[in-house]
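Field notebook, page 118. I keep forgetting to write these up properly, so this time I am using the form the group agreed on. The chain and the ligand, zinc ion, are recorded exactly as supplied. Prediction of the bound pose follows.
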Amino acid sequence: MKLILIFVLFFSSSGCNNVDNKKNYSFDEELYTCSKCGSFLYNSKDFLYENESSKDFKISFSEKVTYDLNSLDKKNKTPLFCKICNKKLGNFIKGDSTTNQERHCVDKNSIILKKIMK
Ligand SMILES: [Zn+2]
């Protein structure tokens, strides 16, 4: 009988403890996922700027997007795709020789912002 009582005490005191701390959580990371397959593509740390229709990033998570550098157009632009589901995300822009800054210009409706708590 004593043993059962100990178990009851143990279970009633474990779990569900820190529920009230929820409002103190901070979002450590903001990540962008593919709107079609949910694959993690971009970190908000790599965000450059945005306009009405797109967001630009310096770099994606490695091996998550794909583009063909052999098919750059005159503006150094080539279509950018999700590597997992092949959805067209926007355009990859290779920097010119002076800035050498590559950009991933992603349509806003191709990615979804996810806030990650640690
Ligand atoms: Zn995808």
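OBSERVATIONS:
- The first strand starts at residue 27 and ends at 34.
- The mean pLDDT is 84.
FOLLOW-UP: compare against the apo run.
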